[in-house]
Amino acid sequence: MTFEPIEGGYLHVTVAGRAQRIYVEMAGEGRPVLCLHTAGADTRQWRHILNDADLTGSHRFFAFDMPWHGKSLPPQGFETEEYLLTTEAYIETVLAVADALSLDRPILAGCSMGGRIALQIAALHPERFSGFIAIEASDFQPAWYDIDWFHRPDAHGGEMGAALVSTNISPYAPPADRWATLWMFMQSGPGVFRGDLSFYTKDASLIDRLAMIDTSRTPVHLLVGAYDLTCTPDDARRTADAIAGATLTVMPELGHFPMSEHPQAFRPYFNDALKRMGEGAGHLRERPRP
Amino acid sequence: MLETLLTMQQRLDASPHLLRLGKLFCETVLIEVEDLSFYLQFRDGHLVSITPGPSAKTPWRFALRTDKAALAAFWEPVPRPGFHDIFGLVKIGRGRIDGDILALVKNLRFFKEFMALGRPATGEEKPA
């Protein structure tokens, strides 16, 4: 029997005064990279990167399921709550996980809402990371859909969410990878995609913070797929233009979920992004093991 | 365009997974492309009739409105960005969806895959 070289484990952290049990996957040796998944999905979006022998030869990747997502349970008492993610809670979660993993200035790589929050952290907590890779990320987009579609008693929110986000997958995506990507949305817990989108489509606070980002201290590289209609290349370009020194690469045959919808096509762009992160001071204070 | 719709009708009947996904879909959908319009009547996932319009007397649940060039681009084997999806057409300003959008969203995978049946299958000439 041969296992994939990915290890998994559970961390216990406190976010906004509440205990959270967070599922983390990790692989590789070298400079640490903390990876953030998109709205309505989970760490499985990063599995191809964590299985990439060339990339894991020089980097140690960590990817975690946000609370309510994947294998991270909602906090106690969730059954009477409306899940609504906020920028503040998301930032606190990322920093708490980085602390619990004893990561010293890792690279932060996030996609979609994860990319949005990576840029928020680049502005507000740059000392905690050595570089930022913001994938399918922009300053702000209002919803072009009704987020309440995805949490209602008379229809399956996951299936509707998957059908909606398929809009953002490139026709070049191999079918197996397209459907593995969509399955995560189909599996998403009730109201979770809606709760992620709530902050993503309503909080415009990043716009005024982009000028705070100092790329001379922490490089910022944006990646955007031409088939992404949620964060379009124009959205990403507008965002990169507002960050002095930020760089941007448009990926012509990719969409909003490049690391999972077409891993082979995404790999060279992500490798290039990692190389743009400079030498970096990031290292592990100790090597976390599950 | 009618020939393509007829091809899509045949392909739908030959797609067991779509008939399963659409087994509760019993609606009339208006497709309007410039001066052409068609009422597609679905019953239990089958497309049972394609009726040319316009008709002021035919009720429909939702409508997809676009232009001929955009629809041709949508039906390319590998469409360009924006033309690859019906919501993409809306996002790039080349399409409009009217009516009961929730009825569409509840059946979104079915309807999107139905609309994609107008694309040529691999190695096949493009339908008219």
Describe the protein in words:
The complex is a heterodimer of chains A (290) and B (128). Chain A is α/β, with parallel strands linked by helices. Chain A has one domain: 3-Layer(aba) Sandwich (Rossmann fold), CATH 3.40.50.1820. Chain A contains 11 helices and 10 strands. In chain A, α4 links the parallel β6 and β7. The model of chain A has no long low-confidence stretch (mean pLDDT 95). Chain B is of the alpha+beta class. Chain B has a single domain, classed as Nonspecific Lipid-transfer Protein, Chain A (2-Layer Sandwich), CATH 3.30.1050.10. Chain B is 36% helix and 24% strand. Chain B is built from 6 helices and 5 strands. In chain B, 33% of the residues are buried. The interface between A and B is medium-sized, with 19 and 18 residues.
Any low-confidence stretches of chain A, pLDDT <50, length ≥5?
none
Gyration radius of chain A, rounded: 17 Å
Name the CATH class of chain A: Alpha Beta
The radius of gyration over CA of chain B amounts to 14 Å
Regarding quaternary structure, what we see is heterodimer
Q: Which residues of chain B sit in consecutive blocks of at least 5 with pLDDT less than 50?
A: none
N- to C-terminal distance of chain A:
21 Å
The helix content of chain B, as a percent range, equals 25-40%
Q: CATH architecture of chain A, please?
A: 3-Layer(aba) Sandwich
The number of strands of chain B is 5
User: Could you report the average pLDDT of chain A, rounded to the nearest whole number?
Assistant: 95
Which class do the helix and strand fractions of chain B yield?
A: alpha+beta
Give the overall shape of chain A, derived from the CA principal axes.
globular
The helix count of chain B comes to 6
